[in-house]
Specification:
412 residues, 3-stranded mixed beta sheet, alpha+beta
């Protein structure tokens, strides 16, 4: 069904109740202000013969003068103070990069396994830094010796549980969410009294994590076909839903595909193989999903599959359709399995260039490994460089022809 974000009343109650935040998670926004000496920066840039360690040490020392001021928080006072202290300690070590989040555990909070888990990300504002003017002791014109940079630190806090790796699993999505807030100007113009500003910030779980259970529930009747489409590289188009629903379904389908985790050389075998095997090597035409009331009601162009692997993958996700962490782990585990099978096939094909028995082993492995053979070969032809061997094209062509004959035999 339709997904709802936490209401402002619920979050207000969480701010006032020291235990209520745990039900929905917590958020804090801080202004990060630092003064760095221009002279120190110039000295660092001019001394080119210094070691990397010395340059980093100078940069850390020039960053120690900073403040972290609360802009907005939904956390109880004690927890917010513990969260801010832990972030300050980490920032003071100079090991935080803008736009790249970190996950830490508040071990000092009640101790043991009950310590909350914090994700925080320092986000650089898309505005020029403000210069500060210092008076001249000699009575002359004021000296422009430093500048004042105003950035933000975004913190998300979850309750302690057996799934303490939840924020670590979704760190790339949380990084993207924080980056989008900065690009949209939400952080630079944040107004704690504005419901619009609060909603954008407090929708972090819905936008970065809950798209998985929502997508699985909406696609449950087509899940095996969606898994098959993602492995084949079939493009998915969405009709009838709002912008967020369309984005969530497309993100989910992208998560199903291992393509982003594989290296794709510029001169792959695909263009050569498409000349003779276009119908087998090329991705199928786009499929169209129709959404009504938050549920996918039709999937035009999806290819039916008999693959037991796709069905097991789909059934596992449908069974965990309310747990974002479990769904993420299912996606990662099955994605790794596909990548292992791609690498295994590539190794056997390399052996088959000089050993015909290895080609026979590759054919058997392709039929029994689990991933649909055509889907597996799609990734193989995309990841083998055409110039690595004069026989690579011939070996892959033979394997494709074998799979064609196997499919024809199954149909008869």
């Amino acid at each position: 069904g339709t997904r709802f974000s936490p209401s402002s009343n619920l979050w207000a109650a969480a701010r006032m109740d020291s235990s209520g935040w745990a039900a929905v998670g917590g958020v804090s926004l801080y202004a990060y202000n630092t003064n760095r000496s221009v002279n120190a920066i110039l000295e660092t840039s001019l001394e080119t013969d210094r070691s990397v360690a010395d340059l980093l040490s100078t940069d850390v020392r020039s960053n120690v003068d900073f403040s972290l001021d609360v802009v907005f928080t939904t956390l109880p006072i004690e927890l917010e103070q513990a969260c801010r202290s832990a972030v300050i300690v980490t920032l003071s070590k100079g090991c935080v990069y803008s736009g790249c989040g970190n996950v830490l555990k508040l071990d000092g909070w009640n101790g043991g396994d009950s310590a909350p888990v914090v994700y925080f990300c320092m986000v650089r504002d898309m505005t020029p830094p403000k210069k500060t003017i210092e008076p001249n002791d000699d009575g002359g014109d004021p000296l422009d010796t430093s500048y004042y940079a105003s950035d933000h630190v975004v913190c998300f806090v979850t309750e302690p549980s057996k799934q303490n790796d939840e924020l670590e699993l979704f760190r790339p999505e949380l990084d993207a969410f924080c980056g989008q807030l900065a690009r949209d100007g939400v952080l630079a113009t944040f107004d704690p009294g504005s419901s619009v500003s609060r909603h954008r910030l407090m929708s972090w779980r819905a936008r970065a994590m809950d798209y998985l259970p929502w997508s699985v529930r909406g696609l449950k009747d087509y899940m095996a076909e969606i898994v098959h489409a993602a492995l084949l590289g079939q493009r998915i188009e969405v009709e009838g839903g709002n912008a967020e629903q369309t984005e969530d379904l497309q993100r989910f389908c992208a998560e199903l595909s291992p393509r982003s985790l594989l290296h794709h050389p510029a001169d792959s075998l695909r263009p050569l193989l498409e000349q003779e095997n276009a119908d087998y090597v090329q991705s199928p035409p786009p499929a169209v999903l129709r959404i009504e009331d938050g549920v996918v009601t039709s999937g035009k162009g999806l290819i039916p599959t008999k693959s037991a692997f796709c069905k097991r993958w789909a059934n596992a996700m449908v069974a965990a359709n309310t747990d974002s962490t479990a769904l993420k782990m299912i996606l990662q585990n099955n994605g790794r399995k596909v990548i292992q099978e791609v690498n295994r096939i590539k190794w056997l094909l390399g052996m088959a260039e000089t050993n015909h028995y290895a080609l026979y082993n590759a054919q058997r492995y392709l039929s029994k490994c689990g991933t649909p053979p055509r889907a597996l070969l799609q990734h193989v032809v995309d990841t083998i460089e055409a110039g690595t061997s004069a026989h690579a094209f011939d070996v892959v062509s033979v394997l494709i022809q074998y799979q064609r004959e196997a499919v024809e035999d199954d149909e008869h």
